[in-house]
Amino acid sequence: MWIDNDEGSLDMWRERATETLEDVCNNASDDETAEDRRQEAAYQVANMLKAEFEEGAESLGLTGFWVDLVNSALSEVDWNAIAEAMVANLEMPVQDNE
């Protein structure tokens, strides 16, 4: 996966994925399974990834052919698969039963 080519980026996204999974678990209802929680966290992380990289592409200031090329490439990325892989490697947070 290309995000893991840069250790700083990998650490940042791993931390974001962990925080997202924790938030999802903390706000989940009792009838949601661990898999439901992982899927919701992956969905949210996928949206964060996509937004981050699209904003980064916009900040490049590309025009014409080049902006079309970058946007086309980004539209081919399977953000869900990347996020699912990130979340799948995380341990489920321990829930407090108060």
Briefly say what this structure is.
This protein is mainly α. The chain has four helices and no strands.
Q: How are the SSEs placed, and which strands pair?
A:
Layout: H1 7-27, H2 34-58, H3 64-75, H4 79-88
Helix pairs in contact: 1-2, 2-3, 2-4
General description of the model:
- This protein is mostly helical and 98 residues long.
- It contains 4 helices and no strands.
- It is elongated and about 50 Å long.
- The model has no long low-confidence stretch (mean pLDDT 90).
Oligomer: single chain
Radius of gyration: 16 Å
Helix content: 55-70%
State the secondary-structure class: mainly alpha
Topology pattern, helix = H, strand = E: HHHH
Average the pLDDT over all residues and give the rounded result.
90
Biggest β-sheet, characterized?
A: none
Residue stretches low in confidence (pLDDT < 50, at least 5 long) are none
Q: What's the N-to-C terminus distance?
A: 39 Å
Looking at the structure, what is the overall shape?
elongated
Query: How many distinct helices?
Result: 4
Number of DSSP-assigned strands: 0
Please report which band the strand proportion falls in: under 5%, 5-15%, 15-25%, 25-35%, 35-45% or over 45%.
Answer: under 5%
